[in-house]
Amino acid sequence: MEQLTAFDKLLIGEKGIEINKLQYQLELFKKGVKPIELIRPATLNDGILSFSKDEAIKYVSIYQKKKNTVDILKFVPASGAATRMFSFLSKFINEYNPEKQTFEEYISESNNVETKIFFTHLSQFAFFDELDSYLTKNNSLKNLSEDEKKLTIARILLLEEPFAYQNKPKGLFPFHKYGNNIVTAFEEHFQEAVMYASQGENVHIHFTISPEFTNDFLKKLSEIRPILEKRYQTHFEVNFSYQDSSTETIAVTLDNIPVRNSEGNLIFRPSGHGALLKNLNDTTADIIFIKNIDNVVKQTYIDESIFYKEVLAGKLEEIRSRCHKILRQIQKNKIKKKDIPQLLAFLLELNIHIPNYVYKFTKKYILEYIFEVLNRPIRVCGMVKNEGEAGGGPFWIKDNEQRKSLQIIEISQIDTENPNQNEILNKSTHFNPVDIVCCIKNYRGEVFDLTQFVDFNQSFITQKTYNGEQIKALELPGLWNGCMAKWLTIFVEVPISTFNPVKSINDLLKKVHQGN
């Protein structure tokens, strides 16, 4: 590692980054991150549970009976900008010249079909009336050809206020329209939370946001909260948090030399959603629902999503109750030898791979083993059938210590050049929609130190651009990937109808975002 200057040390100290962590990051860049070793995909009855309607109703009942006796929180990662939603429009703005080719010629030659779809259905987007009013008021399209109008509209939407959507948070983008009322993804999460996370007259929601958008979120909250609280006769307890600067990681050149800006200062970058583990660890609820900001639907289509949220929560409560009861019994020395086979069978239900040598232990050491593997945070994750979505999926893997476990793995963690690993990937049947219900407290009601359950070998190294130069960036293990690698994990199949993310603005043309 190159010699740190006095200012380097000051900057590192201000961010709260420990020198040994910085050194670890630099070593990781040099040696690289070892791909995950897949054993096989998790499938139905082999890592993924499937409930009949009666079983699902049973779990909803378990949750309903418990919900008013515990603290419930909805945790929404909402720091992402809307930039990627408009990637095809950015491409259109940068490439299209109406003086050299027609719009149709551009679409044909660039294969930018999404842009054509966007303009064909422009009037169906929730922002259209505001856009139309703005264009009329400012004569923005006067004397322009039809092709020039398209380019102008794209530039206004992405780059000009009051729109400038490309640089605004996805959570505050207008997703839906109810009559004359325009609703953002941020607001839809409040309306959804009332349905499954309310406790009496209170609902607790936590959003992780970027600091620069704080005032925007607070302004929107002040607009919608009085209306929603009156409508639902509910008080919303809302908290915001930021990604802690101590979770940022250093950027390096392709030769693994720390990158510096024009003033000679080290460059640090946000380390991905895995950095939100600290935000999650700062909460104190008994049951926490985790769902991404963009996975919402119009109220007409929400019933099935609500039902399965409560199914997952009911399963979590069943597992939590059994685990904590066993842990308390072990602590009080109330487990008899004849009970041990039943306890080991329960571990298998929890997808815990038990090494053969454990069966040879004496009672004392078997109970110590059971206590150690059960005394962990718990997550129950919804899984939908894979219909070609990009992203993580459920797999049985082998870690660096050759331990087998059930994990959510991203494609970027897999060595797709390895024929065996690629074959396992192609046989996967389900996809992770980030539909998680979890418990982060131990059997004494104390919040775990979640950093103790992270597999730091599941970090990511990605290539980015800085001042026109290629650099390498390090992302921490993902929040629902390596950050939860050592949690107790249950996967449950849920309907595809519960998964409706908006990755592209054209996703808002789907029925669940358009219907009444």
Verbal overview:
The protein is an alpha/beta fold and 516 residues long. It has 16 helices and 21 strands. Strands 2, 3, 4, 7, 8, 9, 13, 14, 17, 18 and 21 form an eleven-stranded mixed sheet that branches. A three-stranded antiparallel sheet has the order 1-15-16. A three-stranded antiparallel sheet has the order 11-20-19.
What would a concise description of this structure say?
The protein is of the alpha/beta class. The protein is 36% helix and 19% strand. The strands form five sheets. Strands 2, 3, 4, 7, 8, 9, 13, 14, 17, 18 and 21 form an eleven-stranded mixed beta sheet that branches. The chain has a three-stranded antiparallel beta sheet with strand order 1-15-16. Strands 11-20-19 form a three-stranded antiparallel beta sheet.
